[in-house]
Amino acid sequence: MIVWINGTFGAGKSTTARELVGLIPHSTVFDPEYFGGALSTLLPPRRLAEVDDFQDLPIWRRLVVDTAAALLAEVGGVLVVPMTLLRQEYRDEIFGGLAARRIDVRHVLLAPEETILRKRIDGRSEHGDPEADARVRRWCHGHMAPYQEALGWLTADAYTVDNSSLTPAEAARAVADAVLAGRATPCGIVQTPEPTRETLAAGVLLFDAQDRVLLVDPTYKPGWEFPGGVVESGEPPARAGMREVAEEIGLHLDAVPRLLLVDWERPKPPGFGGMRLLYDGGRLDAADTARLRLPGAELRAWRFVTESEAADLLPPVRYDRLRWALRAREQGTVLNLEAGVPVG
Predict the structure, then answer these.
(1) How would you classify the pairing of strands 27-29 and 105-110?
(2) How far is Cα 58 from Cα 36, in angstroms, rounded to an integer?
(3) H-helix segments, 6-142
(4) CA distance 17 to 27
(5) What pLDDT, in 10s, does the model give residues 101-160?
């Protein structure tokens, strides 16, 4: 199990985490902040210059998941992780990766009142270097606005502890009590086992009266997606797409959807890639749309979008797939793609 202590910079995460390991049996602190310094020596300067924050590096997010899983396998018990996560897509990616390894995450938010938080930030002095301390304080204040913007999803997702008037020991006791009593429940996120070989996946494109395509927002990975999923052993791919549509959004398609394209997705270690199929599920009328239902542990939202709007929501590999699937639909044909490029 992981107890993830979230909150903006200066909220008291690290001091609370150190107190918490004395209250939860067999617990260990794991601070992903250390990876930031390591990556500054591992990555070339040109790559580091492309981001403002180490969290924006996919390797950092992958290291957090892999190291947390390895630590739990090595020491067992509970990992206490004091780490700020203000971008929901990064929370999705990291917590989804942990869920895929069957690791429960108890998400806790330390949320002192803003005036008290700013006062604490102004009083920070931990480096013994006035210039370094001033840079840290500016960094913390600079993240107050993103923190305020993130509070909507944070407070809905995490067990919140107002530590405005609490010492670190008292805040740790509040967190420990919530975890041990079950009030801080396991994070509700789908547990999708990571593939061990190339996979076959089927997606279904569904349209509204304006020919906008339906996209869904998964909780367990970044970026939007089409309804669909991995084809199970012995399952016809088109039927797999129909099953996934029923499971994900509550719609039961009357007819087997028509194949639009086949795309071979190139393996990107540690991913395996595989074959991706897209089908035309047809148009949904107002009654169909009214019946849409989302499983909260798997999908956060749905929306109909134009092709150009999809470019801002889909990862590039999925957007290329959509773009060619729409061309195949217009032409009444089936396209064969390799890594998003038509061949043959």
Answers:
(1) unpaired
(2) 12
(3) 13-20, 34-42, 45-48, 58-75, 88-100, 114-122, 130-142
(4) 10
(5) 889 999 999 999 988 888 888 777 766 677 777 877 787 888 788 888 999 989 988 999
Separation between Cα atoms, residue 281 and residue 251, nearest integer Å: 11
* Single-letter residue type at 328: A
Tell which phi-psi region holds residue 102, choosing left (phi > 0), alpha (psi between -120 and 50) or beta: left
C-alpha count within 13 angstroms, C-beta hemisphere, residue 180: 13
What are the C-alpha distances in Å from 254 to residues 53, 281, 306? Answer: 48, 10, 25
Q: What is d(CA 58, CA 45) in angstroms, rounded to the nearest whole number? A: 16
Q: Contact at 8 Å (CB) between 111 and 35? A: no
Kind of pairing, strands 199-207 and 274-283?
Answer: parallel
| Alpha carbon distance 121, 141 (integer Å) | 7
Rounded to whole angstroms, how far apart are CA atoms 18 and 21?
A: 6
**Rounded (5°) CA angle 269-273-277:** 165
- Among 124, 123, 41, 139, CA closest to 86: 139
Rounded distance between C-alpha atoms, residue 270 and residue 151, angstroms:
33
Q: How many CA atoms lie within 13 A of 138 on its CB side?
A: 6
Q: Is the distance from CB of 163 to CB of 11 less than 8 angstroms?
A: yes
Task: For 167-192, write each residue's pLDDT tens digit.
Answer: 999 999 999 999 999 999 988 765 55
